[in-house]
């Protein structure tokens, strides 16, 4: 309990969630604190909410932020489900200015993947392992012998003439009122497409749907070993904190 602690924050399409994380054990030290994501949130609006989470925990130490975009050297490069003005934003600079703390930013699915590989369903798994987070979008993280290949963004491969995440995300399941079997049929097609490209040994299904896996896992049939995420919706927070630790923020 006396190891290093970092505040992990997961910026998602519907909520921004944070909790202090004990790094060595990969454990959240408190319940997560969640603030709904405002529609069309611009960089300053989200940074403001990050500031509220920092204040809530009275935090002065380092912060790790998982963010739903491709992130290179702290800069958001894409904006699929977020305001376009995020593109080109250096997240740690913004967060320092608005919230007054030092931080590191990582793609949200990469964050969840890091946590699952270190503390969850992918522990000690060698070879190629993919973590797919299913929520507002489809997030992907790819590992080979435990090392992350960042920003794979495989939620945007084309399926049925559209972005895969418009076809098979959880948002689409709700939006098109698909039942579990119908949605799972689409998700299985997506998994097979990914499988044909990378032949992972294991696919870990995370994000909001992972806690409902018993509703749809029976409809999935692929070659790789398929397992639900173990850390559920804590993975993004824990992985963001682990990332900030790796970057020695
Ligand atoms: C974004 C990814 C993100 C995923 C899950 C996609 O739309 O492009 O960066 O990981 O959604 O949030």
What would your notes on this structure say?
The chain has helices at 43-56, 91-99, 108-119, 164-168, 170-175, 180-198, 235-246, and strands at residues 5-11, 15-22, 27-28, 33-36, 63-67, 71-72, 75-76, 103-107, 128-134, 138-144, 147-149, 158-159, 162-163, 202-206, 225-228. The chain has 2 domains: 5-110 and 234-246, 2-Layer Sandwich (Nucleotidyltransferase, domain 5); 124-230, Nucleotidyltransferase, domain 5, CATH 3.30.420.40. 31% of the residues lie in helices and 26% in strands. The chain is α/β, with parallel strands linked by helices and 249 residues long. The longest helix is centred in the C-terminal third of the chain and has 19 residues, at 180-198. It is globular, with a radius of gyration of 17 Å. The structure holds beta-D-glucopyranose (BGC). Beta-D-glucopyranose is lined by residues 68-70, 78, 80-81, 107-109, 133, 135, 137, 139, 153, 155, 165.
Question: Concise description?
Answer:
The protein is α/β, with parallel strands linked by helices. The protein has 7 helices and 15 strands.
Please supply descriptive tags for the structure shown above.
249 residues, alpha/beta, Nucleotidyltransferase, domain 5, 2 domains, six-stranded mixed sheet, 7 helices, binds beta-D-glucopyranose
């Amino acid at each position: 309990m006396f190891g290093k602690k970092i505040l992990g924050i997961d910026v998602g399409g519907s909520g921004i969630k944070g909790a202090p994380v004990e790094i060595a054990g990969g454990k959240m030290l408190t319940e997560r604190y969640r603030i709904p994501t405002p529609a069309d949130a611009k960089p300053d609006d989200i940074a403001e909410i990050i500031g509220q989470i920092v204040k809530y925990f009275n935090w002065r130490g380092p912060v790790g932020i998982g963010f739903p975009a491709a992130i290179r050297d702290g800069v958001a490069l894409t904006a699929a489900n977020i305001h376009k003005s995020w593109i080109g934003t250096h997240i740690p600079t913004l967060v320092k200015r608005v919230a007054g703390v030092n931080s590191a930013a990582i793609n949200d699915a990469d964050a969840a993947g890091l946590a699952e590989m270190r503390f969850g369903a992918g522990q000690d798994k060698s070879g190629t392992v993919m973590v797919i987070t299913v929520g507002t979008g489809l997030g992907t993280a790819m590992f080979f012998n435990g090392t992350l290949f960042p920003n794979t963004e495989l939620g945007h491969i084309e399926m049925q003439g559209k972005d895969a995440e418009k076809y098979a995300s959880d948002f689409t399941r709700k939006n098109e009122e698909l039942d579990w079997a119908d949605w799972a049929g689409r998700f299985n097609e997506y998994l097979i497409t990914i499988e044909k490209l990378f032949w992972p040994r294991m696919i870990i299904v995370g994000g909001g749907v992972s806690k409902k896996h018993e509703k749809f896992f029976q409809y999935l049939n692929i070659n790789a070993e398929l397992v639900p995420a173990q850390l559920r919706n804590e993975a993004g927070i824990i992985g963001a904190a682990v990332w900030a630790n790796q970057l020695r923020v």
